[in-house]
# Entry
Amino acid sequence: MKNVSIFGLGYVGLSTAVCFSIKNINVIGYDVDKSKIEKLSMGIPTIYEEGLEELLKVSIKNEKIKFTSDPKEAIAKSDITFITVGTPSKEDKSIDLSYVESAATQIGEALREKKSWHLIVVKSTVLPGTTEGLVLKTIERVSGKKCGTDFGICMNPEFLKEGSAIKDTLNPERIIIGEYDKKSGDYLEEFFRQFYDNILPPILRTSPINAELIKYANNAFLAMKISFINMIANLCQVLPKADVEDIARGIGYDKRVGSLFLKAGIGWGGSCFPKDLAALRSFSRSLNLDLPLLDATMIVNEYQPINAINLVERKLGNLKDKVIAVLGLAFKAGTDDIRESVAIKLVEELIRKGAKVKVYDPVAMKNASMKLGNKVYYAEDSLDCIKNADCAIVATEWEEFKRITAKQFKELMKRPLVFDGRRIYNSKEYKNEIEFLAVGLGSEELEIPKVRMETFLNPALAVNAIVAKKEKILLVKRRNEPFSGFWSLPGGFVEYGETVEEAVKREVKEETGLIVELEKLVGVYSERNRHPGRHVVAVCYSTKIKESKISIDLEENEEAKFFNYRELPKNLAFDHNKMIYDYLKLSEL
Ligand code: UGA
# Structure
């Protein structure tokens, strides 16, 4: 078997390294973080993953795995190097490839001193073109060697899930090999053939760019599937006797649909879906291409936690000083990871609304406390969490929450109102005992929201709706990307550090000399393709100034007039929470 080095010991890197080593491959793990190397060398895993610690200890004892802070040693002692460094989001949601670049630089430096042919495999999720662009070119430049003759390169995306990383790595559904040349592809295929032996999954050999795209398309599709069922769940919620669980089961039997990833909930989070969808969208935008299904997928997801809170509010009224128990903080069960966790967003929104929040998670308390600080009460266990609460919200589907009985909710809570945000309880049973709400569960008592939210993919429709002065219609087209500008009366841009309202008032004053009170946000919409490369978010306010220009302009219906905007400043920051806040204000109209 070939010897392997792994650059970057995060989730994917460490799981891969340990799985290789327990199957008798000599593995050397490298990471820039020295404290990580020290811990791992002592057999202490730096992430929580079931079974990982035992396997790590066995491999260390058998001298099959070793960790180093020296990239040259890692390259010298291996035949294949997997790049598994993180590819986080930048502030503007585009992808940060700096870790990939520095790994490529270190590999290049080490290769300069290496005589034999070496294979580099990019496993990190990277934008289409990165493997044969940034990675290959950096290695060639730094090493002075030539790809194809001195070293080979492949892109091999990873599909493991947190919480089942070991199982997923040892039993993948497929292996994608994006090869620079045949020699590189053959070499990697041979390695996997030996590794997986008699449980070899299908192998797809393709180009690096396709391999990169397969990873993004895969995650985008899964996120879309979840948003789809969440959208249906929202419909079910306003229909008496409807239940999304049965609908998911019903459509899941259709093999073309498939039953997996159809669990309605408070939304998807984690270190992958949000980051990858945002990166893919930002990348496509840079090519002047809109991917509307991606937008819709993200809009539904942003709305999910707010939707949960709205339902609770309808029962409890104003949440100020209400005690809300949030069960679960990790982005899903089986992990202590809280990155982009919807549970955390939910907690933050509850705090913003003045609720007293009690939280509990079996493993993610430490990570959550770094984020939530002293703004919440950290419960001892799940029962302590629900004690004396006005409402309990299930935000993560941990097994131990499933064991809380309706009777316990009834006995321990001040008001036994439960919102099952992950559908872990038998609704019929719990409904008999307590006030029970759940994602996608129709309820006779719930009234249809007074305010309708409409999402317009076509801004012209939004403009028409405003013109028609259907003021009860909310025109919302939000995107969690840099907020590039707005149209108000008469129109302008949000300056850095300014709120949307402040900007509207400032612009109105600058252009008309009038000081206006903003009464009501009538509409928000965004528009893109008309002016490639730019993105306009429009907000329309009604004001106390009767003769505002907005109606005149809109009635003339010359859209061109609405888009004579200036180039947007590059440093514009987008306050994502602010937009949700705006939406909330709309929903309170
Ligand atoms: C995801 C993919 O599933 C992996 O295939 C991929 O390798 C990984 O991203 C990655 O790119 O590295 P992961 O983020 O670990 O894996 O978690 P998932 O199990 O996919 O769950 C993501 C989110 O979707 C969670 O918040 C979960 O609660 C939610 N979810 C999932 C649902 O709301 N409903 C479902 O039916 C499934």
Notes: DSSP finds 22 helices and 18 strands in the chain. The pocket of uridine-5'-diphosphate-glucuronic acid is lined by residues 125, 158-162, 219, 222, 226, 261-263, 265, 268-270, 272-273, 331-332 (CB under 6 Å). The chain has a mean pLDDT of 81.
